[in-house]
Amino acid sequence: MHFESANPSVVKSIKQRDLLNNWLRLYARDHSLPRIDEYQPARIEDELPDLVFCAVDTTSEPPRLTIQSDGTRTSSAYGSTGKGRYLDEYLGTRLAPIVMPVYYECIVRRLPAYTIANIDDIYGRIVAYERLLLPFSGGGNVTHIIASLKTISEDGGFEIKNLMRGNDKLPVPKLRSIIDRDLFHRAPGRIPPGDVLEFG
Predict the structure, then answer these.
(1) pLDDT value at residue 70
(2) CATH T-level assignment (fold) for domain 4-178
C-alpha cells in the first residue's frame, strides 16, 4: 500500500488540524513521540464523539490494537461499539484489509497518518471519511494511537448510521499519507526564527 509524503497542511478539518498541532507541539521538543498522558488539547471533550483510543501491542506481528474507547459517532457509523475488542476483529473481514495497513504504517513510521476515503450512505450520497492517526509512546515502541474520524458530504446532510457497513460497496481511497515533513508547531501570527522583516 502506497503512502504519500505530506506536511500538516494536508489535513482539511480545522479541528483535526488543532489535534495535530497539539501533538506536534509535544513532538517538537526532542523529535520523539509524546506520552499519551501528556496529550491534553483544549476542549478535547468536544471531540470525543469522533475519537477512538487504541492500545497497541507491538510484541505480536502484526501489532494488535485494542479499542479502549470509541466515540458515539464512530459507534453509529460502524453499527456497534468496539470498546474492549481488537480493532481488526471489530472492523471485520471486509474493512480490515483496507483500514489496518494505515494503522500499521503509523506504528512502523512512528508518525501521524492521514487518509481520505469516499463511501456512499444508504441513500447513495457520497461521504468523505477523513481519518487522522496520532501515535504515542513511553519511550520505546508505539503504545497508543488516537484516531480522529470525521465525515463530511458535499451534498450536505447524510445518514451516519451504519455508514461503514450499510452497503455492498467498499470505501474508495482518495488519499493515503504519512505526515513526515514540517514536523514543528508554528503558533499563528508568529515570525519563525531566522526570518527577517524588511521595511521600506
Answers:
(1) 83
(2) Beta-Lactamase (3.30.450)
In angstroms, the CA 25 to CA 128 distance is: 28
Type of residue found at 52: V
**pLDDT per position as a tens digit, 33-61:** 999 999 999 888 889 989 999 999 999 99
- The domain segmentation of the chain, as residue ranges, is 4-178
Residue 27: pLDDT band with limits 50, 70, 90: very high
Distance, CA of 19 to chain centre: 10
Contact yes or no for 136/36 (Cβ under 8 A): yes
Instruction: Report the alpha-carbon distance of residue 69 to residue 38 in Å, rounded.
Output: 18
pLDDT digit string, tens, across residues 79-95: 778 899 999 999 989 88
